[in-house]
Structure formats: structure tokens, C-alpha cells
Design brief:
two-stranded antiparallel sheet
């Protein structure tokens, strides 16, 4: 089915969402741990508030304690996230869909988000300038029908040499990438990229999770966060600092 054409992005309704559930198993209270003098999630909130392109900054949390800290640092926290979408294996699509549905039920039509910018607490080294550069790139390409944007850096591990184990035959290795193309000539397919010189393979990129941008329709209609067309926001190898656990 052909993709639905997107309209123009309302510049006055670009919203940041900071996901900050409580209950981290790796580091207790991770999202409110002190980091250089502020609770960890405060850095993401600050980036949303300092942005010249983001109009509102929300925090999605399941904790009243986190809610009060987020409010203190200037975020909007109009609800607490339900427990059933706040556990260890809860997905981005679940809390983003919950946020959009809450907005539709509680905010007027002219206040509905035109873009969602996800700012994770676990990337405190990102700056408001970087956030704005990512949003501006998406806006510059809004007529190209992209569903989302992801910040990426060159991968420092060779994905073409990675395998997973067949769940039905646990001694059998299956290549993670089963075909590729020549870096210098994309028309030439490589049927077994594990067995060729890495110099002829295409560059692979790592999603560093600094900035994610999504159209609401990607979440509500396609039921995903990437969609059919994802725009790259390139960052350097030095932009791979991630304190997630």
C-alpha cells in the first residue's frame, strides 16, 4: 500500500517528550541520579526548554517523585504513565502512543503535536544546539515524506561479521546480514558479505539515541517509531557517550 502523503509540519506544535520511568534494575533511580549537579533527566528537559524550535517539553513517568522533580525543572507532566507500560520490557511505541492519545483526549485540536522529539535522559551530553539542528534537518526535508529521524554515528563494530543462533537448531549460526552491496557501486550485490574484504562493504551506522523525531501518524497509524522512511542525522564518533544500562 502506498504511503500516505504528509502535510506541512506546524512549527508551533513541536513537542519534546522525555521518557523517565522509575524502577531501573541496573541503577536504582537512574533517571534522577545526580549528574554534574543536576538530576540526570534535567539535562534532557533543559535541552527541550532551550530549543528554539520545540514549543513544549513533557516528561512521561510513572513516578510521583519523578513528576515533582520534572516540574521543578520546568517540564510539563500532566499525567502519570500507567504501570502496565512502565515495566522493564515496555517499548517506546507504548509510551508515545499513550502520550498522543492523552493529548487528543485532553488538549484542543490546535495544540496537538505536529512532531515528537524524544530526548532520552541517558544521553546527557547532547546540546540544545544539536537538538535544533536535528529538528531543522527534518523540517528542511518535510516535503520528502520522511516518517522519522534518527541520530546516528559510524558503527565501530563490523555488523557483517555478526551472527545469531537459529532458535530451532541451536548449533546453527545464521548471518545477521545476508546480503549487501559494494560501497563504490551499489548496483553490484554481495551475496555473502561475511566473506569479502570490509573495504568494499558499505558504511554501517549506529543509532546513538541522542535525538529521535517522529510524526504522530508514524506512531498512531503505522504503529511504529521508525516508519517506512527514516531520515539520518549524522553525528561524529565522539558522539557515542551513552550511560544507559
Amino acid at each position: 500500500r502506498p504511503a500516505k502523503a504528509h502535510g506541512k509540519v506546524d512549527r508551533s506544535c513541536i513537542c519534546a517528550v522525555v521518557p523517565a520511568r522509575a524502577g531501573s534494575k541496573g541503577v536504582s533511580g537512574k533517571n534522577i541520579k545526580d549528574f554534574c549537579g543536576k538530576p540526570l533527566m534535567a539535562w534532557a528537559i533543559e535541552n527541550g526548554l532551550k530549543s528554539k524550535l520545540i514549543s513544549r517539553t513533557f516528561v512521561s513517568t510513572d513516578s510521583e517523585e519523578y513528576r515533582q522533580i520534572a516540574l521543578k525543572h520546568g517540564a510539563e507532566v500532566p499525567f502519570l504513565r500507567p504501570a502496565e507500560i512502565s515495566h522493564d520490557t515496555a517499548t517506546d511505541i507504548q509510551f508515545l502512543e499513550h502520550f498522543l492519545k492523552w493529548m487528543r483526549e485532553n488538549e484542543p485540536a490546535d495544540k496537538q503535536p505536529s512532531l515528537l522529539v524524544q530526548l532520552r535522559p541517558t544521553a546527557p551530553c547532547v546540546t540544545a544546539e544539536t537538538v535544533d539542528a536535528a529538528v531543522q534537518k527534518f523540517l528542511d526535508h518535510e516535503d520528502d515524506q520522511y516518517d522519522s529521524l534518527r541520530s546516528v554515528t559510524p558503527a565501530d563494530h563490523e555488523i557483517f561479521n555478526m551472527f545469531f543462533v537459529d532458535p530451532h537448531a541451536t548449533e546453527r549460526l545464521v548471518p545477521w546480514v545476508q546480503k549487501a552491496w559494494r560501497k563504490d557501486d551499489p548496483s553490484k550485490e554481495i551475496g555473502e558479505p561475511q566473506s569479502v574484504a570490509r573495504q568494499i562493504l558499505p558504511q554501517v551506522y549506529w543509532h546513538n539515541a541522542y535525538v529521535d523525531i517522529m510524526r504522530p501518524s508514524t506512531i498512531l497509524e503505522q504503529r511504529c517509531t521508525v516508519g517506512r522512511r527514516c531520515l539520518a542525522f549524522h553525528m561524529g564518533l565522539e558522539d557515542n557517550v551513552d550511560i544507559d544500562t
